[in-house]
Structure formats: C-alpha cells, structure tokens
Amino acid sequence: MARPLSEQKHDAILDAAATLVAAQGIGASTAQIARAAKVAEGTVFTYFPTKDALLNALFVRLETRLSMALGTHFPTDADGHGLLQHAWNALIAWGSTYPVDRMALRQLKVSERISEQTRAECAGLFGSMLQRLEASLAGHIDADRLPFYLGRVLINLLETTLEAMAAEPERRQALQQAGFDLFWKGIQR
To answer: Are 33 and 44 in contact, with CB atoms under 8 Å apart?
Structure first.
C-alpha cells in the first residue's frame, strides 16, 4: 500500500522551486529543487510526474496568490482611476511582501513550459476583476492598446517602482504614488 502524500513535502517542493526559479530561471534542475526542499529527487516526481507539471503547478500557485491579493477589498463601485489605483497598490504590496514569488512568476510568465491550459485556468482567476478594470478604462485608453498597457507597461513600471522603493525605503509611499501617477497620466487620451 502506498503512503499518503504529505502536504508539507508538496509545499516544500513548491517553495524550493519558487526560490530557485526566481534566482536561476526555469533552468533550475529538479535535483537542485529536491536538495533545497530537503527531499530525494525521486520524491519530487512522486508529487509532480514531470518538471513541466511542477512548473505549471507553481504557476497556478503563484497566480492564485496574486489574484487573492488583487481581489482583497476590490472596489466594485469605483471608477477607472480608483480601480487602477487599487490594482497598483495591491500589486506593489504583493510584490514587496513576496519578492521571490514575484520574480518566479515573472520567469514563468515568459516560459514556453507553461501550458495554454494552465494559462487559461489562471486567466479565469482574474476574470471579473480584469473585465471590470478594462471596462472602466475604456474611456482612457485606446482599446487596441489596452492589453499592451496593462500587460507590459504597467508591469514593467511596477518592477521599476519596486526597485526604487527597495533602494530608497524612506521614500516608499512617495515612489509608489509617483509610479502610479506616471502610468495614469501616460494612458490619458
């Protein structure tokens, strides 16, 4: 009879994978992940049949955490500015609180090893929030540019803001607001 799987080992493997993917990218080996999780390499494959399965599970975990951070106190009745300010503040809080998760997710988002099925599943986590945000910004952004602005410009400005905040923690609030203001003014028609 097979032993039941341990949630602690499962989580330790995902935690180790996040740390190593954040530091090394998806090239981190399963042997390194196993060592960091303090399990045998074979144990990794007991929980995740392939490295791709492990990376996809990590992607789902990180996207779930991010969607929960964005969804907390999501203002359903706010205008575009208010919704975007909430999203910006939530992303800043999540990114500064969980830098390893943020860096690992950034690596995974550009990886071809994340399946379309996994990406679609995770997109559903943000569905109503993203639809509400996009609808509220329709009067501010050309619809053809909206995916570029939200998917690329906002994320890169967020990264730059987080780096500036880490370099100057005494100016954290001012830099956080300055980053948002720059994006908001930049999307105005």
So the answer is: yes
For residues 88 and 96, what is the distance between their CA atoms, to the nearest angstrom? 12
Q: What is the pTM of this model?
A: 0.91
Does position 2 have pLDDT exceeding 80, yes or no? Answer: no
Largest Cα span, the chain = 65
Q: How far is CA 146 from the centre of its chain?
A: 19
Nearest to 33 by CA among 121, 104, 130: 104
* Under 8 Å between Cβ of 75 and 49: no
Identify the residue whose tokens are 């830099």.
175
**Residue-wise pLDDT tens digits, 4-28:** 689 999 999 999 999 999 999 999 9
Residues with Cβ within 8 Å of 189's Cβ and at least 6 positions away in sequence, in order, are: 139, 140, 141, 142
> Tell me, what amino acid is at 75?
P
Using pLDDT thresholds of 50, 70 and 90, give the confidence band for residue 167: very high
Task: Kindly state the DSSP code that residue 152 receives in the 8-state scheme.
Answer: I
Q: Give the closest residue to 189 by CA, choosing from 87, 85, 80, 89.
A: 80
Q: DSSP 3-state assignment of 168?
A: coil
DSSP state of 6: P
Sequence-ordered strand ranges (E) for the chain: none
User: In terms of residues, how long is the chain?
Assistant: 189
